[in-house]
Amino acid sequence: MRTRIGYIASNTFREAVRDRVLYNLIAFALLLSGAAILVGQISIEIEKLVVINLGLTAVSLFGVVIAIFIGIGLVSKEIEKRTLYTVLSRPVRRWEFIVGKFFGLAGTLVVNTFFMAIGVFGALFYVSHKFVRADALIFVALYFIILEFLIICSLALLFSSFSSPLLSAVFAFSLFVIGSFAEDLRNFAKMAHGVSGLLATGAAYLVPNFSAFNVITSIAHEQPVAGQLILQNSLYALFYATMALSGAVLIFERRDLK
Amino acid sequence: MPAIEILGLEKTYSVGFWRKRPKRALFPLRFTVEDGEVFGFLGPNGAGKTTTLKLLMGLVYPTAGSARILGREWTDPSVKAQIGFLPEQPYFYDYLTAHELLEYYGQLSGVPAKQRKQRVEKILDQVGLRDVRGVQLRKFSKGMLQRVGIGQAILHDPKLVFFDEPMSGLDPMGRREVRDLMEQLKHEGKTVFFSTHILSDAEALCDRVAVIHKGELRDVGAIEDLTSSVLGKVEMIWQGSQVPASIKALGAECHVSGDRVRAIIAENQQDAIIDALRRERLRLIAIIPVRTSLEAYFVEKLRRAETTAGSVA
Question: Which of B228, B246, B275 is the last residue of a domain?
């Protein structure tokens, strides 16, 4: 069972690589090296701040775009192209297919993030000519970014299990944007009363809270991240991704593959 | 033990914007396929053949009914390790090579690594794709994809193989190769269940067939039994150089050649012709039954079904 998930995951990873998804790294490298050279010339004292901010934001955005655009097609494309028929007519359970797809996409994003992280550290070294202890905090930011990707992957899969790629993209991207302002939404909900207050609170807690994962600015200012936040975010991402994946499995298990 | 027992499987889809309008794709279906048979599932386009196969593969869920495959519930995952399936107009992961695709399907089917390598090589040879084993499937022609499809269906050495329109889109050579392969599978003792609307393929290959039309099973049986149910014709040959008026009056289609007359007549006119020949003192030489083709049977059967449906409406 675990091996079948592994086979599906590695095939999903292979598909992403062969579809030249990792080519985004070239665009990322160009962006970052251009930025590093540019800030090296125009900014004084804050080169490092700019490079960390720009680099990590780019890592996050590139990953989110990949997660959404691959994730939304993971199931629907297989149904549309009927490649799923020859997979599910084998001893493969539907939930194994969904979970395998999830790990395949997550793996692609982790590898992608790894290479982009090398780029960030390279640019950082270019502008500051050395690494200091506080630079290790970048790993925490990268870890949070990966957690964010896991949630987005699971959401993209959830939408892909019942809707068209276009609608799935709209849903997933909207949730990403709303989730990035989840803290503001929660504060707004606290101010509302009655039924609208309940609805706002429900919505605020239902959307993924991506704002808690964004520590880029504080890390750029070399402010440490509390261990409690790391634990809290890890558990939150695990819980949210599991819930979204369970939803995807529940829908997909009942679906007729016409 | 039958290889397949279909026990009242039926399927109704919900259609329309609110999915409230029922559309019956398959009326309760009941028949069995014996072990080691080549069984044809015949019907025109849209008859319900693919829906039946999808139900058996667990790709769509039945509204009612069940099935048993190789003696077990058809939903039992262990059954799937022993069956192979070729969908209609198959499409595969086109970023993979033929070798990689078969390797992947072998993994999913649970073929142990050591055996898998040998099986993949054997199948590549068997379906004639050895020379292009390293080429990505996006560069394959339709016929080559069909070969890959057949390859993946038999890769794990299944006991029972389902083919959905296996000859569709193939050139005459390709069709011949698929026929040969199906015969080979039969010789190996495997059960082959294939759907088709190409009747000559069914006539050439099948031990028995089932006929489905508009989601309803119309007939099941050996081709000879089915075709004999449709009014047959006989060829009669007698000595003579002229066709007597009494025989002409029966509407027989006669050809005179030398001192012999050949006539093709409906089976139910045979006795009347014999009586006429006796009266005319002509010597009967032979009576040869003319075999009704499956196509004639099919046309007749479906025409009758249409007429019945029309009169009911």
Answer: B228
Distance CA B50, CA B88 (A): 8
Q: How many residue pairs from chains A and B have C-beta atoms closer than 8 A?
A: 73
Q: Is B22 on the interface with A (CB under 8 A)?
A: no
Same domain for B162 and B22: yes
Q: Which residues of chain B have pLDDT under 70?
A: 228-231, 291-293, 308-313
Burial (CB < 10 A; 0-12, 13-18, 19+), residue A133, is exposed
Confidence of residue A236 (pLDDT cuts 50, 70, 90): very high
CA torsion sign for B91, B92, B94, B99 is negative
Q: Average pLDDT over chain A, rounded to whole?
A: 90
- Residue B182 located in a structural domain: yes
Distance CA B90, CA B55 (A): 17
Owning domain of residue B255:
233-290
Q: Is residue B306 part of a domain?
A: no
* Tens digits of residue pLDDT in A154-199: 999 999 998 888 999 999 999 999 999 888 888 888 888 888 888 8
Domain with B43 in it: what CATH number?
Answer: 3.40.50.300
| Domain annotation covers residue B90 | yes
B261: amino acid identity, one letter: V
- Counting the structural domains of chain B, the total is 2
Is the Cβ–Cβ distance between A113 and A63 less than 8 Å? yes
Last residue of a domain, one of B228, B243, B263: B228
What is the chain A residue with the closest CA to B162?
Answer: A89
Q: Reduced to 3 states, what is the DSSP secondary structure of residue A255?
A: coil
Considering the domain architecture, whether residues B79 and B120 belong to the same structural domain is answered as yes
Question: Does B104 contact chain A (CB < 8 Å)?
Answer: yes
Q: Does B111 touch chain A (CB under 8 A)?
A: no
C-alpha torsion sign, points B254, B260, B266, B272 = positive
Question: Which residues are bridge partners to B4 per DSSP?
Answer: B33, B69
> What tens digit of pLDDT does each residue of A28-66 get?
878 877 877 787 677 667 888 888 988 899 999 989 999
pTM > 0.90: no
| Domain identity same for B202 and B135 | yes
First to last CA, chain A: 26
Q: Are residues B171 and B191 in the same domain?
A: yes
**What ipTM does this complex have?**
0.88
